[in-house]
Amino acid sequence: AAWVRDGGSLSDTVVTSGGGVMVEQDGTALGTTVSAGGSLVVSSGGSADGSVLVGGEAWVLSGGRTSGTNVSDGGTEWVAGGVAIGTTLSDGSQIVEAGGTASGTLVGSGGVLDVSDAGTAVGAAVTDGGTAA
Question: I want to staple 75 with a disulfide (CB 3.0 to 4.6 A). Which of 1, 14, 53, 102 is the partner?
Fold first, then answer.
C-alpha cells in the first residue's frame, strides 16, 4: 500500500486488485483510479479529489474528505465519519454511516445511496434508475 501524509501528494495513481492507497494528515490524492479489489482510505486530515472507483472501494473516515468521486461498475464509497462532496454514482454505491456526511451526491442509473440513521445526506439528486434509501 502507498501512504500519503505530511503535505505529500499522489496524482493519477491506478490501484489494482490487492492494492491500496492511504491518505491522512495533510496528504492529498488526485485522480486516483481504483479497480475491483483495490481500496482508497482517506482518514483524518487527508483529502482525495477526482477519484474514480471502477469496482473498487473508498473509505472516508473521520476527518477525511473526498470530492468529485465517480463510482461505477459495482464500486462503493463508504462514508464513515468523514465528508464526501459531489460524488456521482452510476452502477455504484455510496453508504453513509454514523457521523458521515454526503453532500451533493448524484445518483444515476443503477446507483444506490444508502444513508444510515446516524448518517447525513444533503442535496442529493436521484435520476431515473437511481435509488436512495
Answer: 53
